[in-house]
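Hi R.,

Here are the chain sequences for the assembly we discussed:
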Amino acid sequence: MDSTPDLPAFAASEPEPDQAPHRVPEISSLGLDTLVTEVAERLQSAAAVTDRMQRLLEAVVSVGAGLDLHATLHRIATGAAELVDARYAALGVIAPNGHGLSDFIHVGIDDAVAAEIGELPVGRGILGALIDRPEPLRLTDLGADPRSFGFPPHHPAMKTFLGEPIRIRDEVFGNLYLTEKRGGGAFTPEDEQVVHALAAAAGVAIENSRLYEEGLRRERWIAGAAAVTTALLSTDQAEVALTIAAEQVRELADAALGMILLPTVDGQMRVAHASGEAAEFVRGELLPPDSFAARLLAGESVHLDDMSTDPTVVIRLARSFGPSLAVPMVAASRVLGGLCVWRPRGALPFTDGEKQLAETFASQAALALRLAEGQRDQQRLAVFQDRDRIARDLHDLVIQRLFATGMMLEGAARRAIVPEVKVRVGEAVDELDATIQEVRTTIYALQHDDHGDAPDTLRTRVLRECSQAAAALGFKPSVSFVGPVESLVGEKTGRQLLAALREMLSNAARHARASRVGVEVDSTVHLDDDGRPVGGDPESLDRGGRPGVLLTVTDDGVGIPEGGRLSGLRNLTRRAEALGGDAWHEPGPHGRGTRVRWTARL
Ligand SMILES: Nc1ncnc2c1ncn2[C@@H]1O[C@H](COP(=O)(O)OP(=O)(O)OP(=O)(O)O)[C@@H](O)[C@H]1O
Ligand SMILES: [Mg+2]
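And here is the predicted structure of the full complex:
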C-alpha cells in the first residue's frame, strides 16, 4: 500500500541516528499492533464512508425516479431518514406567500397516530425558525431550544433534530426535518453533510416534478379551452357553451364554484352561468357595483387569497368561500364578460401561473363568444333580408293587384243594372279593402317582428294581444290599423285601449262561439260630445268633432242576448268615458254576431 509512509506510526519509528545502520529493529518497537489497529480503523471508516456514499447515491437516484411531485417529496423524506438513521422525517413546503407551510409530508408516524394528532403543522416554533432563517440546524434537544413551540397531544417524543433547507436555485422551496437519531446519539456533522448533499439533489428533482406538473396543467387548460371553443362552434346556442365553460373552469382551477359573468345593459354584472357548490344560489344574481365587478368590467383581473377574511368582500355568500380569482373575457378590446372561480375556505390561493392560464382561457372563450355572436347576427340578418323581400313583394305586387281588382269591380258596379249585383259587388270591394288592410298589417309585422331592439309600440302590443287570444279562440283574429296609430295614441290611452281589447277578445272567446273575429284600430275618427264618431267629412268637424281613436271588435257568433247581466262591458264604458269616449255594442254586419265599439279622445 503506497499510502503507508504517511501513517504516523511509521514517522514515530524512524531509526535513531546513533544506532548501527544494519541492525534489524525489534518488532515491538515498530508499534505494529497500534499500526494494525489504526489501519483497521481507517479501513473501517473508509468502508463506512464508501457505504454512506453508496447510500447517498442510491437515495439521490431514487429521489429523481419519478415525476409526480407528491411522491417525489415522499421519497426525499424517506431517503433522508434512512441516510442518517432518523426515526422520523418530514418535508415542509413553504407557502407561496412565504409565510408558513402549504404542505407537510411526513414519514415514521403511522396514519392512526397522525389522525390522533390532528392538524398538520403550519410552520411555527423550530419549523418556523428554519423558514425565517434557511440554514442547516442541528439540535440535541428540541424541547430545550427557546424557540420550541412544544408538541400537540398524542405527538411522539422527539429530542434530537436535524433541519436542512431545500433550495431550487435561489428560492427556498421547503425544509427537511429529521428527528430521533436511532441508537440514542445526536446527529453528527457527517449526517448534516450527507443531508445537505441530498437536499441539493432533491431541489433538482422537485423542480423537474414541478415543471412536469406545470406542463400537465397547461395542457389541461388548453384542452379545456379547446373543448369550450368546439362546443361554441357546434351549437348555435352560446348558452350551452357558456355553461360548459363554467364547468370547465371550475374543474381546471380545482375550484368549488365556477361562474360566467355577463354585463347587463345598465353597466352591472350578472352571474349568467354557474357550476358547482351553491351554483343555484348565485345563478342570475347581480353583483353589487362596489364588488370586484367594476374592476372586472374595466378589464382587470382580481385575485383574493381568502374571501372569508378579506374586508373588501361585499358579497355575503363569498364569505363562506376562500381564495377567489376573477378574470375578464376580452375580445377586440371589449370586455364581453368575466370568468370567476371560488375555492373552498382554507384551500391554497391561486398562483400567478394559474392566473395567467385562466386569463388565456378567458380570452379564448371570449373570442369564441364573439364568433358565435357573429354567426347569430349573420343568421338573423339573412332572416331579416328575407322578410324585407317578402314585405316588399306583398306591398308592390299583391296590394297593387288587389287595388287594381277593387277598382275594376267598382267600375263594374257603376255599370251594373240589377241592384242586387251592385250590392254584391260593393260587398266584394269592401272585402278587398279589408284584405288590403290585413296585408298591410302583415307587412308591418314582418318588418318589425323579432327585432329585439324595436320599441314596444301600440301596434305591436295590439298584435301581441291578438296572437295571445288565438289560443282561447281557436283561431287568430284578423287585425287592421287605420292611420298612424302609434304616433297619435298616447301611452295612457293606449293602455286603456289594450285593456278594452283584452276584455272584448275574452268575451268573444267565452260567449260568442264565433268562427271569425276582426279587430280594427282607427286613429282617424272624430268624436262628438258623447264620444260617438261623427264621420270623417269636413262638415262634421264643423259640428265640433274632436280627434279620437276607435277600437272595433267584430265577431260572427251568437250575438249578445238582450237584458243580460253586464260587468266587463260596463267596465269598458267606464274606461272609455273617463277618456272622453264611449263603449257600446250592436249586431254585426248583416245582423249576425256582435260588434263592440270603444272610443277615446286623443
Ligand atoms: N261577443 C259576445 N258574443 C256573445 N255574447 C256576448 C259577447 N260578449 C258578451 N256577451 C254576453 O254578454 C254578457 C255580459 O258580458 P260581460 O263582459 O259584461 O260579462 P262577462 O263576460 O259575463 O263577465 P266578465 O267580463 O266580468 O268576466 C256575457 O255574459 C255574455 O252572455
Ligand atoms: Mg266579459
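Residues 352-415 form the longest helix (64 residues). DSSP finds 16 helices and 16 strands in the chain.

Let me know if anything looks off.

Best,
T.
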